[in-house]
Design brief:
single chain, 179 residues, two-stranded antiparallel ribbon, 46% helix, globular, P27 family phage terminase small subunit, Phage_term_ssu_P27
Length: 179
Amino acid sequence: MAKDGTSRGGQRVGAGRKSKALTDKIADGRLNGVQVLPEPAEMEGTDVPPVKDYLKAAQKNGKDLCAEDIYIETYKWLKDRSCEMLVNNQLIEQYAMSVSRWIQCEECISEYGFLAKHPTTSAAIASPYVAMSREYMKQVNQCWYQIYQIVKENCSVEFGGRSPQDDLMERLLSARKGK
């Protein structure tokens, strides 16, 4: 504790041995200290919880917001790996909204180009959509890493294969065609 009352020092972020995935621990036979969640009782319910209205909201430009589709796809991917109860729904919603906003920015870049006109000097400047797209992509990756880390640490079956993150470029290209 420093004189000003703040805590400083301690372990650095990212320091130390990286944790292994639960599937690797099970395969190695080293389960000491590992909590394997029991199989849930057979319950019947809906496939996906109801999607919030803001993920389906009409957009000013008249195009559809694809956040609802991304939310459903991500939730089903988590459900296939029995991890849907471990990931907070707000994190999935944030991921879906960030992906859809990234796609909107990319569509605007395609429509208006990389350059824009300065409002007062009329000189060419970099398009603001480029910076926004970059920021949304950072958000998308950060949210996805959080979701994937939860799946990696808690999924007792192989969690490889296609994931919603793999389909981002496909979704971008299909959004441009208006599908």
